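Example 3.2
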Amino acid sequence: MWNVIQSALVAMLTAVAAVGIAVIATALLWGAVGRLAPHDYHDVPMVQRLAVIAGLLFAIGVVLGGPTARAYAEARLFAIGGPWDLAFGEFLLQRIVVPFGVAGEIARKAAGGQWRIIYPAATGLVLAAVSAFLAFRFWRGAMASRAALGTLILAFGVAVIAFYVAETTFWLVHKLNFWALAVLTVLYQRHRNAQGH
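Structure, written as tokens:
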């Protein structure tokens, strides 16, 4: 009995640590962009939103077309010894470094004519460039350069965090499969009761 409680506590603490990394990374990203970009950067939402959308699209492209794309198959999610059956440290080392080395994989898929798979990543890169160029339309001189650099950092940071969130979600569902099912059941019942069924 104690082993079950102990393993559940370790799993929950690991889940909190995994989610905490995403929260801390997001706060650091917004802080870095806020310090680097001009003080009125947030007053021009078009530049900022394009950078966020670019990052999200690139992350989707990495999930769909990157080297770990096969790991998202439903049959592999709960497999013992499968791609998600990793300790927390292994997960961070093996799965989270993927966005940094994905350019070669995306280029190979593009050369092989698999544009449909990598289209989101390519669109994300184009939008990141467009949002950086737009900075020069709204600011001048050094402020424009700071805004463009902040925009590119924002797009890159959003891509990395979004990819981390996707990977962490699948990893947590694998690790907490029983607990995830229990939480989903409780949420479903709560939703059903709120609707008066």
